[in-house]
## 1
Amino acid sequence: MIQTLQQYMQFPFVRYALIVGTLIALCSSLLGVTLVLKRFSFIGDGLSHVAFGAIAIAGVLNISDDMLFVMPFTVFCAILLLRTGRNARVKGDAAIAMISVGALAVGYLLLNLFPTSSNLSGDVCSTLFGSTSILTLTQAEVWLCAVLSLAVVVLFVLFYNKLFAVTFDEDFARAVGTRVEAYNLLIAVVIAVIIVLAMNLVGSLLISALIIFPALSAMRLFKSFRGVTVCAAILSVACAVSGMLISIVGGTPVGSTIVAVDIAVFAVCALIERVRG
Amino acid sequence: MALITCRDLTLGYESHAILEHLSFTVGAGDYLCVVGENGSGKSTLMRTMLGLQKPLSGSIAFGDGMKQNEIGYLPQQTAIQRDFPATVWEIVLSGCQARAGRRFFYGKADKATAAHNLERMGMTGFRNRCYRELSGGQQQRVLLARALCATRKLLLLDEPVSGLDPKVTAEMYGLIEGLNREGVTIVMISHDIAAAVRYATHILHVGGTKTFFGDIGAYRDSAIGRRFIALEGGDEA
């Protein structure tokens, strides 16, 4: 088995995949705690469907580097969802359901009307579940992923205290003059960036799992915000790396293997919490 | 000059007025209780004083070197906080977010302030404990310590004893009274009219068309005060 791995490691695309996978797993787990606690998890889910629709549109428009289109489009929708979420007249969750399911339907429709390759269902499947995309990254995409991931990590560390304040008690933060709207916007934009990045790793349907599971697992084990955040980051990277290695050796789809490992870890963490009482 | 001067305030949501023509002042060292029935606009008034929403008309002026973002606020607990993984220390330190301003991290002075206020609330021993595992009274002390980090002069308390048992409620009132003696001005929303007339120096009674503002003696003598004390606090007064 080690031999098989060594053999695969010789290919640059496998090394790229591991590097990018690790970075994506790291930054997707950071905001997970905030998302879960702010009850924003559904925004993550909605946005991943939006990103799928955006990819379809990029395909139809024949945009060669679809990240350049998908990224701004998803960020725009993130801001839109955040605004409607706060508007009392439009029910936030209904708006999100409309946008996300609508994007999914229109995306699939567009792919059917303007097929870009002969293997339509293969295309759709890999966009939704990310079956091979992580292994087909070009060097430029690896760099883009690396730079954006690092930017997310740096932003998170710098604004860690503010994010904690805004997550724990928005009203108090606003009352003492913290610019809550600006930080909510920052959170939404960063989530959108993470989702577009993570699509490469696990595909659009499984992104929420990558964001939510490490945070939920860490919350079983730790009682401080810092402890939960650090633990979530470590668990996320560990699950992503082992998931990728398993999928290389076993020939299973990358995205779903990583999520399966995440689920297993969550089960173990929940068990530990139960045993501890 | 008064810390807060409210002139002819009309409060509400989207042109639907809940409270009209409200005028009152909060002086340094006062202990003002805001009383009134449910839905009379007490919380709306507090949110307006904090700048969380705008008054429909009228003005709120801050004096004596007081700024709106220097109010220490004790909100009612939210559902999010009940399962939030955070230590007591992390929460109290977040009270320093205004004084940290544009700095990304808390400095030595911020940490000293947080430690001092934790001590004031008698919660130093709970520093590394998880917030959600504390009792209701302990949680309120933590949030009060956080509010004290945000202010030197004025605390705004929104129903600080709701959901607490009688013994813990008495302790909480004792703590707040102590802070008031140290010179912290208190504005408190309260359901508990018996405690309000016992501790407060001033009463603001809101509700419907009848509002009352004055010191505690005048409130006891007023028609609205007599009726409300008899009605709500009959068993204790």
## 2
Amino acid sequence: MTQQLILYPLLLQLFLAILLMFFWRKISAQRIISMIGSLIHLAVSIGVFAYIWNHGTQTVQAGDWEAPFGITFIADTFAATMVLLTSIAGLAVSIFSSGSVISDRLRFGYFPIFHFLLLGLTGAFLTGDIFNLYVWFEIIIISSFVLITIGGEKAQLEGAVKYFTLNFLASMIFLTAIAVLYGLTGSLNMADLAGKVAAVENRALVEIDAILFLIAFGIKSALFPLYFWLPASYHTPPSAVSAIFGGLLTKVGVYALIRVFTLIFVGDVLLDQILLVLAIFTLFSGALGALVQNNIRKVFSYLIICHIGYMIIGLGMFTEVAIAGAIFYLIHDILVKTNLFMMSGLIYRITGSNSMRALGGFYANYPKLSLLLFIPLFSLVGIPPLSGFWPKISLITAAFESESYWSLAAIIFASFITLVVISKLWAEVFWKDVQEIPARPKFRYFHKIRNIKRIQIVVPIVFLSLVSLYVGFGAEHIQILSARISSELMDSQQYIDAVLNSQKTQ
Amino acid sequence: MEIILAIIIGVLYAAGIYMILRRSLVKLIIGIILLGNGANLLIFLLGRITEGAPPIIPENSKVFLEAYADPLPQALILTAIVISFGLQSFAIILVKRAHKVVKTDDLDEMNATDEDS
């Protein structure tokens, strides 16, 4: 039974999504099922994580077809951590959706699709087969297309056209890259590929294929110069949807990048240089973009792009310390970005606006809420001892050690601009005098909705803030975790053995 | 055969990307379809084309005696076709809705998301 343990989070999400379809028009039943299901999912993910932590990497061969012929599912510490983070963010957003998304939208299958999205994310983290990864990516994007268009407002549809086109293009480039890889090696299992790609004689073709993978995942994770779809679309859907997109969708691209470039295409100096340059530009352009925006959610969208740069810069430096820093940043970023978009949703519910110019006086009117919102905002900046501070130490140390001073400059510059942006936001939204915002007659303001809904909106923000406080104050534990992930990633032999020799050891 | 397929794939990719770069929404869909088909043919070609050798072990033998056609690419293509079919039908509905709401099929006029709000 424990053999199949790593499949449980996956099967649970699938079961939830299908179960929810049977309650198509019964929204209140859907809300309850989704929340309880997400809670169980969190428990299962913690179980899986604890098992992996104690027993090391686990693999399951689907249908008992021996690797490399069948589809492999593998959970190493990295995958288990990502599944755990997915379930934390999933639980928070599930509760938040019940409170904040209006029932007209929920009626068109919001919750089933939401759980299909989580299913796709969990699958993408757990799979050990490159074509299977493509299939999970498709599940993710198809669900996200529905979530981004549900409601059908003008801005949403326009955003969706751009989002759709770029993501479709990314999928096609990914598929092309897989085709070339299969033509070169005749294998699709990632562990098997690791050995076979290294043995291919035609290095130029391998390099081109690696670039194809880089472009495909680069579009998904919003790397410079492939990020333009993100600020055009992420602020259009309801904030619950933006929260799960901002927290997890770009990060799955980062996960795929880290996986592919530490396992399959390793030790290519040119590629590492390209990654570094792209990361530096991503940091600069995301930071500068955030500086000029007025809509809070657009500011956060640009900050997503900016902070993707930190993870990629860690991957580009390719030392154990740098990758540990990147992983730590990934953990911190998923929690904080999800929280920030929920926060923008809360502000929107209270005031009916997301424009920084129009908002003001939040601190005077809602001191307790402001204190709560302080946590994610300044975790993002990385004021010690909040969570954003610690990964930057690792990244800066790594930049010094590998003498890449441009990366060092970019890291510090981006973190400075983030500080400026967040201070500006704090001054405008929280400290400025109260502004008159014209009241919208039909809008369901925060003080008009029922108590239970208010709790459902605030509780997930509190929950995620507590988790990110833990990441900040218990940084020691997260540091041990990311160091272990990093050493597992750098020593890919362990992963390869776990997949290919699993039959012999059992 | 390989040469012909390679040329067709190149043309499909080029035409697909050219169509996606146009401003019209309908041409966007055509581009998406062409690109998807190009990728499917590419998998087919790179799985090596073997003529008249199905992957079936002869009756009185336990292993393959000769080179056989790799069945895996076809399974991959089948999956990819199903997925791209779903995506394309979604795209058509999305474009129809967008055209109805925005009242234009010119991508350059879809600027609502870039406006300051």
